[in-house]
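From the methods appendix. Each design record in this collection lists the tokenized structure first, followed by the designed amino acid sequence. Records were kept in a plain field format so they could be parsed without special tools. The example shown here is representative of the layout used throughout.

RECORD:
FOLD TOKENS (131 positions):
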């Protein structure tokens, strides 16, 4: 071999060594960046799962509170209906009592009493009508 051939061979060998070192350095940098990326992605995924579980637990609490509120509203509605029914019954009873009292008052309208003994049957009738 000639000196030029040996020089070329050494230069090419040196270039390949430098290229190999550069490629190994680039490969290490890419693998390091990729590993860091995968680590960051896994960390973000784990945090998202924790956040999801927290949100689900909060959702369950809110649903329980809504169900409790709905049952209380329903109970209040039922109580209102029962109170309305009692009020209507009381009104009807008051109307019936007023009619009885009106009829008794009409019967005793012309009664005149000068003594307590004469007034007692009229008072008794009025009291029984108001009972």
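DESIGN:
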């Amino acid at each position: 071999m000639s000196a030029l051939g040996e020089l070329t061979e050494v230069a090419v060998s040196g270039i390949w060594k430098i290229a190999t070192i550069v490629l190994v350095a680039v490969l290490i940098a890419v693998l390091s960046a990729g590993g860091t990326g995968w680590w960051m992605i896994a960390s973000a995924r784990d945090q998202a799962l924790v956040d999801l579980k927290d949100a689900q637990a909060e959702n369950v609490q809110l649903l329980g509170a809504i169900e409790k509120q709905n049952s209380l509203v329903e109970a209040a509605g039922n109580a209102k209906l029962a109170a309305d029914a009692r009020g209507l019954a009381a009104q009807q009873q008051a109307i019936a009592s007023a009619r009885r009292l009106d009829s008794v008052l009409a019967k005793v309208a012309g009664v005149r009493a000068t003594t307590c003994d004469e007034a007692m049957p009229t008072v008794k009738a009025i009291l029984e009508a108001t009972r």
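APPENDIX NOTE: The two ends are 140 Å apart (CA to CA).
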